[in-house]
Amino acid sequence: MKHICIIGGSGMLAGVTTWYADNDYIVSVVARNEEKMNRMKNACSNPENIRGVYVDYRDSTKLEESLQQNINRYGPFSEAVVWVHSDGLNALTTVFELLGEKTTVWHVIGSKGNAQNLQKQYYPTKDIQYNLIQLGFLRVNNSQRWLTNNEIADGVIYSIRSGDSYNLIGEIS
Q1: In 10 A of CB 74, how many CB atoms?
Q2: pLDDT digits (tens, 9 = 90+) for 67-116
Q3: How far is CA 114 from CA 86, 108, 118, 160, in A?
């Protein structure tokens, strides 16, 4: 089985986590909230494929230690999906360090994220495919609204399947 790391996989990316688990991946999910993790696992057809990693991704040392334990237990990561707030971007560097050559990172960013700057600033030094998925908004009846968690998960899955280096879900100003 392939092994994937998802940061933010028990919240708005829960649908992405269950999609990978239902497609026979071992999914190491970095989360802070065990209740949300359990709710997400209960909605999954293969909850036994989901491994909770309960750590704050902003703590690089604990993040690296926890993810390394799962790598030792379940094998190297073939991919990573990373959703972090701007105060936790150092988690990307930690993930890059733990990944082997020829792996793929899907970095999910918000509507205000500067994709070009992030690609320059966080581009890995290893042979890792670094892809950005930017979240926007939808226009409905002459107004704007944020994407729902289901729309985000569906858009991220679509982006992963497309393999494109940049995808926008919705639109940005």
Answers
A1: 18
A2: 999 999 999 999 999 998 888 888 888 998 999 888 999 999 988 887 77
A3: 11, 12, 6, 20
> For residue 10, which amino acid is it?
S
Is residue 65 within 8 Å of residue 97, measured between CB atoms? Answer: no
pLDDT tens digits for range 17-28? 999 999 999 999
Q: Which residues pair with 103 in a beta bridge?
A: 128
